[in-house]
Amino acid sequence: MKVILEGNKIKTIEEFHKEIGKQLEFPIYYGNNLDALWDCLTSWVDPPVNIEWNDFELSKEYLGEFAIKARLIFEDAEKEIEGFKIEYH
After folding, report:
1. Are strands 84-88 and 49-54 parallel, antiparallel or unpaired?
2. DSSP character for 89?
3. Whole-angstrom distance, CA of residue 2 vs CA of residue 54
4. Which pLDDT tens digit goes with each residue over 37-57?
């Protein structure tokens, strides 16, 4: 599964959770927070998954510290989940 996050279009934390949840088909009860993101990445999503986060630097401007924390979660998932890959552009 290929997921593309367009950093120039995701301007709020709420929009981030809505977009990642939609593209990865998270369950309706997805908690819209970083703990829930980790839980869904590690237990809901079936690899292979390739996430491409475009305009990441712009995302840091829009989302602040949240973008960095989300990046760390994706990088941890990449280390722990075979077939999970994250790229930043």
Report:
1. parallel
2. -
3. 13
4. 999 999 999 999 999 999 999
Q: Please check whether residue 62 is in contact with residue 55, taking contact to mean a CB–CB distance below 8 angstroms.
A: no
**Residue 64 token pair:** 């602040």
Structure tokens that stand for 5 in this block: 């996050």
Runs of H (alpha helix) within the chain: 13-23, 34-43, 56-63, 65-80
The pLDDT tens digits of the residues spanning 53-79 come to 999 999 999 999 999 999 999 999 999
Contact status, residue 88 vs residue 59, Cβ threshold 8 Å: no
Tokens describing residue 46: 């079936």
| Distance between CA atoms of residues 25 and 27, nearest Å | 6
Contacts of residue 39, Cβ cutoff 8 Å, sequence gap at least 6: 31
CB-hemisphere CA count at 13 Å for 31? Answer: 9
Q: Domains in the chain, start-ordered, CATH in brackets?
A: 2-88 (3.30.370.10)
